[in-house]
């Protein structure tokens, strides 16, 4: 039931489909092993699962072995990789999420995209946008608060 949405989030961060599938499997294993840690008073099950998937994908993206493996690919793998990127599994329009995010102020939209979909840390986003770290964190918090209004 959740695999499509979780895979969509993972594949936006990890662009190689095989690695994204491995991360999805690791996500479900971690969900299974840490199910006792879920607290319904802190948020929805789907949000908790999505955070686990996103965090595992970002951890993989930042890992040293992943960075080194991406440096040494032959041309045929890259051609297949580019072709595979034309197929998108995640469809945020199904729940209108894309419209909700694009309806936010542009500065909120930009920061959310960098941090949640491109895997930037808050510090990296602040450096990239040439903004103070506190401003980036405030914009993320404000954007999430605006999005929550649409779901509650």
Automatic annotation (TrEMBL):
Q: Which residues form the RNA polymerase sigma-70 region domain?
A: 2-65, 103-149
Q: Which PANTHER family does this UniProt record tie to the protein?
A: RNA POLYMERASE ECF-TYPE SIGMA FACTO, RNA POLYMERASE SIGMA FACTOR SIGZ
Q: Of which family is this protein a member?
A: Belongs to the sigma-70 factor family. ECF subfamily.
Gene3D superfamilies membership: 1.10.1740.10, Winged helix-like DNA-binding domain superfamily/Winged helix DNA-binding domain (1.10.10.10)
Keywords carried by this UniProt record: DNA-binding, Sigma factor, Transcription, Transcription regulation
Under the heading SUPFAM superfamilies, the entry gives: Sigma2 domain of RNA polymerase sigma factors, Sigma3 and sigma4 domains of RNA polymerase sigma factors
TM spans, by residue?
A: none
GO biological process terms on file: DNA-templated transcription initiation
Q: Which Pfam families match?
A: Sigma70_r2 (PF04542), Sigma70_r4 (PF04545)
Q: What is this protein called?
A: RNA polymerase sigma-70 factor, ECF subfamily
> Keyword Transcription regulation on this protein?
yes
Q: Which GO terms describe its molecular function?
A: DNA binding; sigma factor activity
